[in-house]
Write a structure and sequence with these properties.
With 261 residues, the chain is an alpha/beta fold. The protein is built from eight helices and seven strands. Strands 3-2-1-4-5-6-7 form a seven-stranded parallel β-sheet, sandwiched between helices. Strand 4, helix 4 and strand 5 form a beta-alpha-beta unit. Helix 1 crosses helix 8, helix 3 runs parallel beside helix 4 and helix 4 packs parallel to helix 5. The protein starts with 7 loop residues before the first strand and ends in a 21-residue tail after the last strand. The chain binds nicotinamide-adenine-dinucleotide. The site of nicotinamide-adenine-dinucleotide has 29 residues, from helix 1, strand 2 and helix 6. It is an enzyme of class 1 (oxidoreductase). Pfam families: adh_short_C2 (PF13561). This is SDR family NAD(P)-dependent oxidoreductase.
Length: 261
């Protein structure tokens, strides 16, 4: 088990799903955590459960002042910042020819600008204080387009490239930046789709492991990326998708008989 005793972390979007699993892992590893989210009620509940180890900071990641406040409050409470997981995300879907500009802006602002602003202010602090490690949450959709998901997929592809640029710029400040690209994960974000049997089946047909991932199965690899074990991993994109990205070629196994040479 990775030890992060004495370390301080930030998780954006940490009140639910993948972000929440990351918060749990960080606490178990001994880190103190500043959790950023819009969900004030859940943040208060988490603070009560983890007094002295977790600080909830109501934050809209699309607002630069909120991000500055998040970094300041976390540093004030716990004395530093070593690790950040930039997770907050959601989308408004729509066909390209019908998508209102405000839905595009909502999605790209949250998924891409939100990561930019978080990264900017986390790294600014880390640069002045000896370095750190940052993981940005992109998506399988950075590589695989989806119907009605142009804004989301484009933003997530942007997060992957932003991560590479950050790794290039920040290595000299002893800051490592990597991206994690989840496939289908069971969270409140996806339950509206996967609760519909026909949609769930359509998903599972694409996933060699024939199931969605659990948020813990994303949080574990993310923890590895910020740990000492990953000290030479930088600018990488780690797909965590149950093998989804290797599908697409026709399944020829059903045509192969035992008599085949
Ligand atoms: N669940 C999946 O299948 C999946 C797959 C690939 C990528 N992802 C990405 O993983 C990340 C987490 O997704 P999840 O499935 O855990 O979703 P989730 O809905 O369970 O959690 C997202 C959290 O982000 C918070 N949030 C939303 N807008 C915010 C804002 N403006 N400022 C601060 N916080 C905000 C929400 O309140 C929520 O707590 C997202 O970036 C998502 O795009 C998810």
């Amino acid at each position: 088990m990775t030890t992060l005793a004495g370390k301080v972390a930030i998780v954006t979007g940490g009140a639910s799903g993948i972000g929440y699993a990351m918060v749990q892992n960080l606490l178990e590893a001994g880190a103190k955590v500043g959790v950023a989210d819009l969900n004030e009620e859940k943040l208060k509940e988490l603070e009560q459960q983890h007094k002295g180890e977790l600080l909830g900071v109501v934050t809209n990641v699309t607002k630069e002042e909120d991000i500055k406040n998040l970094v300041n409050k976390t540093v004030e409470a716990f004395g530093g910042l070593d690790i950040a997981f930039n997770v907050a995300g959601a989308s408004k879907s729509g066909a390209i020819i019908d998508q209102p500009e405000e839905d595009w802006n909502f999605t790209v602002d949250l998924c891409l600008k939100g990561v930019f602003l978080s990264l900017k202010h986390e790294a600014k602090y880390m640069k002045e204080h000896g370095g750190g490690a940052i993981v940005n949450v992109s998506s399988l959709n950075a590589h695989v387009p989806m119907h009605y998901g142009a804004a989301y997929s484009s933003a997530k592809a942007g997060v992957e490239m932003l991560t590479k640029n950050a790794a290039l710029e920040m290595s000299k400040h002893n800051i490592r930046v990597n991206a994690i690209l989840p496939g289908l994960v069971s969270t409140p974000l996806t339950s509206g789709l996967t609760d519909v049997d026909a949609i769930n089946e359509a998903y599972l047909e694409r996933i060699p492991m024939e199931r969605a991932g659990d948020p813990k199965e994303i949080a574990g690899p993310a923890l590895f990326l910020v740990s000492e074990e990953a000290s030479y991993v930088n600018g990488a994109s780690l797909l965590v998708d149950g093998g989804w990205a290797v599908t697409g070629y026709p399944d020829l196994s059903k045509f192969i008989t035992e008599n085949r040479p």
